[in-house]
Amino acid sequence: MVGALEDYVNAPDAVYLWRYESETRETWGTLNRLELISQKWRGEQWSHGLLIAQPRELRNPGTAFFLITHDGSACIDLLRAAAEQAGAIAAAITGVPNQPLYGRSEDALVAFTFDRYAATNDRTWPLLFPMVKSAVRGMDAIQEFAGRTLSVGIEKFLVAGASKRGWTAWLTAAVDRRVKAIAPMVFDMLNMKTQLRWTEKIYGQQSEYIHDYTDLGLHLALEDSPLHRLRVWVDPYAYRERYRMPKLLLLGTNDPYWTVDSLRHYWHDLPDPKFLFRAPNAGHGAGSTPEAKQTLASFFELVARDHPLPRLVWTHTQPTNDTEMIQVETDAKPTAIRLWTAESSDRDFRNDVWSSRGLDLDPVSNGAATLVFTPCDKYRAYMVEIDLHTPSGNPYQLSTEVRVLPDFAYIE
């Protein structure tokens, strides 16, 4: 069943082409703009912009940063930072998905196409399929342009994206061997069946932010054919054994789409290497915070330069019934470690404020340990955050999973 996505992506499409549009010279390098026609989907040609940033000093030509986005106006600073810091090409594809279509955009459009698939059994309907194909054709065009025009041979990509584009980044990595690393942002929904049940238990209902899907009853029909097949095709969890490349998940502590501890339902099932940065007091725009952008640029630097990735492990123990100890260790040299906590009366942390305190560094483990107390009449969420630097001195931050005390039993 998993093969439907590959079948769609690999199907020949005669409309594929790209055209050179312009070049802008900046103090940091050159920004090229291309137009891409990725495919024809349900009678509509999908048109995209491609932004390709080349730094003045191209030290690592074999790996490129590739951002999947809808609007390219806000991504140039990130492309510049990634290109300069890694000494590598940084590119973005816009218009993923092409929209509006059928009078709908974003989640409303995705949900509509899922519903059309359920009604027709036509495997070309799910919008994630052409979104992934857009990314794959974008990488094709970037390689072709870089080779022909820039004399740069790009072989591998770090693929990033936020929200539905983060969802697309996961699925692109599952079907394209050129993906050397991924950095999906604010998509905390792997293992969808379990996530939906967990959200229902925590909130008493599904998040209102996914109403485009729940209004159509898509969350209720996941066990039925053909929506069961659809879930297998579009849930990155179904492809988890394929994700053996380095992974950086960028999330927010206050994202209204998910529960604060949604990660518990898939993190331990993902192969290593894997890393997490959770922006404190950030919602669905967490990927746009300065800390997240800097961490993403530093992750690309490590990947593009083939630097050893840090080892970060954490363990939780319960010394007493009302306390939990978290111990964090790393083989890197952190400059600071801090504990972040938030409290909630109802286990819904979406609007609660997180605060931090510094922890003492252990020179042996390069980590720290601390006790977290279980409150008597409320819930406490916590995580540990660690400050690190790349070998060239650029900063980045990593986080542990969020834990909630007292904990609910896991839903099977």
Please characterize this protein's 3D structure:
Pfam families: PhoPQ_related. It comes from Methylocaldum marinum. InterPro entries: AB_hydrolase_fold (IPR029058), PhoPQ-act_pathogen-rel_PqaA (IPR009199). This is PhoPQ-activated pathogenicity-related protein. With 412 residues, the chain is an alpha/beta fold. It has two domains: 3-307, Alpha/Beta hydrolase fold, catalytic domain (Rossmann fold, 3-Layer(aba) Sandwich); 310-388 and 397-405, Immunoglobulin-like (Sandwich). Helix content is 26%, strand content 30%. It is built from nine helices and 17 strands. The strands form three sheets. Strands 1-2-3-5-4-6-7-8-9 form a nine-stranded mixed beta sheet. Helix 4 (128-150) packs across helix 5. The mean pLDDT is 96.
Question: What is the structure about, briefly put?
Answer:
The chain has helices at 3-10, 76-86, 106-120, 128-150, 164-175, 192-203, 211-214, 227-234, 290-304, and strands spanning 17-25, 29-41, 44-55, 63-68, 90-93, 156-162, 179-185, 247-252, 274-279, 312-320, 323-330, 336-344, 355-358, 368-373, 379-389, 395-399, 403-405. It is α/β, with parallel strands linked by helices and 412 residues long.
